[in-house]
């Protein structure tokens, strides 16, 4: 049994890989975790049998391996970033992709109304705030007598442009209404955080742009300050990890301590104070403390998630049991899992972010963190999906099993089994390619 001291955060370094690998596996990891955690959604922690493989999702009568709204909306945002086109002229092909709120709303609406980018061809679940936001846009389109896409296709090019412009104006006024109606205290769910991953992947070269876009992408359905800030902070972290993964040979990779420091020392704005309470160190790191071990010791004493981690790690077996050793695997996972009172996994955006980050910091492999989040219950699929985005970017590599049988940090027999059981992997891969192509097209301009 390995002890915690053998794996301090500052010794756990980012796995290097090309950005394209990181993007592909981050999207896949999100779907894997979402589908794994789906059956545990709505269930109180420790009230259901241990989940270690894809099971049918009784909440929505889904077969094993079906991913939910979290992945669909993440894919919708990724598709919009990868393929948005301001102009319908063919010359624009080489400049495709970019950030556009109206196009994002349109993509979400196609999922909501027509099941585009759903694992089973229809939207079977949608968060209440997202439903309200898309409802506002739908009503506005109806009031403006906007034509359907099929009707629009039959128009002359000039009339088509005019119709497109009308739709844009309608969307902009709907966005203003969403900002007014859904900006209050009652709308602080995790619906924008769960899909924001592609913004960090697409704009990793420019953290400031990534943060600003993350805020704007949240505001299309979740304009509340705490949701916008959660998206910005998470996205900056994703962007930092992607940049680090592409570091030149010989450069030292960032460690999990850098990820913790990002949140612990983040300049949380006053209008998102709940995030500061959950994620900042209660005693700031003293100036001049730069030694990683000293930094980690400070945070272990003064960061709420690190105190939880230290408390649970005293008894947990750290080695991942083999596939046949289900009892030990369950015991090891449950031992790392604080009570729901100490680490809630509700749909409140602050809870979701903290729980996902905890799972990342408390485990050493993609698989271990995925098991931890899926077994949290509550909003398990969303906590798992958010964790999966970060963990996917962190651990992803095209590694195969080593000659000595040693497993990688991302792939393991269990993770391969999850992948093989995942429904509509082709859809995830298709959207991942769109995002990879966007990033490659725009690499020169960053
Ligand atoms: Mg879901």
TrEMBL record:
<feature type="binding site">
    <location>
        <position position="68"/>
    </location>
    <ligand>
        <name>Mg(2+)</name>
    </ligand>
</feature>
<dbReference type="Pfam" id="PF03747">
    <property type="entry name" value="ADP_ribosyl_GH"/>
</dbReference>
<feature type="compositionally biased region" description="Basic and acidic residues">
    <location>
        <begin position="151"/>
        <end position="168"/>
    </location>
</feature>
<keyword id="KW-0479">Metal-binding</keyword>
<dbReference type="InterPro" id="IPR036705">
    <property type="entry name" value="Ribosyl_crysJ1_sf"/>
</dbReference>
<protein>
    <recommendedName>
        <fullName>ADP-ribosylhydrolase ARH3</fullName>
        <ecNumber>3.2.1.143</ecNumber>
    </recommendedName>
</protein>
<keyword id="KW-0378">Hydrolase</keyword>
<keyword id="KW-0460">Magnesium</keyword>
<feature type="binding site">
    <location>
        <position position="69"/>
    </location>
    <ligand>
        <name>Mg(2+)</name>
    </ligand>
</feature>
<feature type="binding site">
    <location>
        <position position="382"/>
    </location>
    <ligand>
        <name>Mg(2+)</name>
    </ligand>
</feature>
<dbReference type="GO" id="GO:0046872">
    <property type="term" value="F:metal ion binding"/>
</dbReference>
<feature type="binding site">
    <location>
        <position position="379"/>
    </location>
    <ligand>
        <name>Mg(2+)</name>
    </ligand>
</feature>
<dbReference type="InterPro" id="IPR005502">
    <property type="entry name" value="Ribosyl_crysJ1"/>
</dbReference>
<feature type="binding site">
    <location>
        <position position="381"/>
    </location>
    <ligand>
        <name>Mg(2+)</name>
    </ligand>
</feature>
<feature type="binding site">
    <location>
        <position position="70"/>
    </location>
    <ligand>
        <name>Mg(2+)</name>
    </ligand>
</feature>
<dbReference type="GO" id="GO:0004649">
    <property type="term" value="F:poly(ADP-ribose) glycohydrolase activity"/>
</dbReference>
<feature type="region of interest" description="Disordered">
    <location>
        <begin position="151"/>
        <end position="170"/>
    </location>
</feature>
<dbReference type="InterPro" id="IPR050792">
    <property type="entry name" value="ADP-ribosylglycohydrolase"/>
</dbReference>
<comment type="similarity">
    <text>Belongs to the ADP-ribosylglycohydrolase family.</text>
</comment>
């Amino acid at each position: 049994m390995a002890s915690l001291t053998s794996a301090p955060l500052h010794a756990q370094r980012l796995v290097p890989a090309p950005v394209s690998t990181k993007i592909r596996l981050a999207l896949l990891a999100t779907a894997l975790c979402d589908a794994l955690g789906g059956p545990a959604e709505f269930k109180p922690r420790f009230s259901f049998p241990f989940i270690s493989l894809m099971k049918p999702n009784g909440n929505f009568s889904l077969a094993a391996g079906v991913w939910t709204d979290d992945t669909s909306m993440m894919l919708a945002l990724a598709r919009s970033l990868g393929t948005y086109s301001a102009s319908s002229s063919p010359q624009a092909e080489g400049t495709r992709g970019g950030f556009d709120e109206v196009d994002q709303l349109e993509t979400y609406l196609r999922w909501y109304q027509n099941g585009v980018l759903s694992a089973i061809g229809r939207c079977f679940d949608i968060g209440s705030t997202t439903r309200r936001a898309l409802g506002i846009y739908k009503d506005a389109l109806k009031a403006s007598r906007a034509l359907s896409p099929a009707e629009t296709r039959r128009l002359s090019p000039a009339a088509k442009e005019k119709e497109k412009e009308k739709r844009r104006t309608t969307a902009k006024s709907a966005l203003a209404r969403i900002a007014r109606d859904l900006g209050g205290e009652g709308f602080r769910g995790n619906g924008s955080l769960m899909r924001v991953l592609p913004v960090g992947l697409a704009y990793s070269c420019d953290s400031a742009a990534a943060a600003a876009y993350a805020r704007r992408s949240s505001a299309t359905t979740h304009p509340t300050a705490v949701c916008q800030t959660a998206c910005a902070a998470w996205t900056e972290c994703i962007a930092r990890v992607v940049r680090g993964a592409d570091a030149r040979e010989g450069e030292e990779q960032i460690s999990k301590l850098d990820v913790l420091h990002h949140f612990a020392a983040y300049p949380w704005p006053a209008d998102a104070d709940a995030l500061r309470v959950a994620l900042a160190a209660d005693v700031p790191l003293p100036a001049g403390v730069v030694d990683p071990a000293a930094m980690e010791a400070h945070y272990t004493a003064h960061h709420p998630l690190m105190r939880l981690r230290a408390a649970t790690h005293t008894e947990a077996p750290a080695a991942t049991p083999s596939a046949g050793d289900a009892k030990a695997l369950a015991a090891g996972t449950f031992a790392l899992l604080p009570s729901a009172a100490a680490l809630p996994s509700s749909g409140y955006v602050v809870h979701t972010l903290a729980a996902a980050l905890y799972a990342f910091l408390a485990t050493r492999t993609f698989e271990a963190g995925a098991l931890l989040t899926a077994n949290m219950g509550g909003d398990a699929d969303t906590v798992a999906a958010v964790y999966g985005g970060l963990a996917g970017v962190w651990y992803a590599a095209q590694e195969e099993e080593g000659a000595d049988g040693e497993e990688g940090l991302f792939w393991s027999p269990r993770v391969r089994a999850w992948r093989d059981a995942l429904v509509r992997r082709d859809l995830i891969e298709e959207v991942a390619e769109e995002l990879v192509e966007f990033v490659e097209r725009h690499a020169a301009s960053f």
